[in-house]
Design a protein that fits this description.
Layout lengths: L4 H29 L4 H5 L10 H20 L13 H16 L13 E4 L7 E4 H26 L6 H5 L3
Antiparallel strand pairs: 1-2
Helix pairs in contact: 1-3, 1-4, 1-5, 3-4, 3-5
Amino acid sequence: MSLSIYAASVPVFQQMLGSLKGILIKAEAHATAKKIEPQALLGARLSPDMFALTRQVQIACDFAKGVCGRLAQVELPVHEDNELSFAELLARIDTVQAFIGALPEAAFTGAEGREIVLRPGTPKERRLSGQDYLLHYGLPQFFFHHAASYALLRHNGVEIGKLDYMGAF
């Protein structure tokens, strides 16, 4: 039995967005319990040249919706990237979860062979099959930003571990 593009994308993103939501909920509770200004965590970075937590979460959400939407050949919702609080980031995750959860599995039929064009019309344009786009670009990008979010919170004292990172499966 082969693994479908749908099975390798939507359920994986749903699981990991759920875990991202869970660690943000724990982070907000941690900030409240320790009387830490939420912005101290939302603006946290491991290095001056990296994105802060808020941006890491936004980008992870963008990859989840973008990869699934492009593979299913549907128009992508636009987010303004203006979240300033844990509540707003949690709402963004919920919105992305609802979007990808509503994509019909049938829309992914043949997606492995579809051409996905990254940065069309620019010198950085790249053409990938749907399978390569998912496995070699989309999932690694998503996991990078999810892991960075986890690391930022763990580094700042939020009591989370591997099970929090993995989420429910």
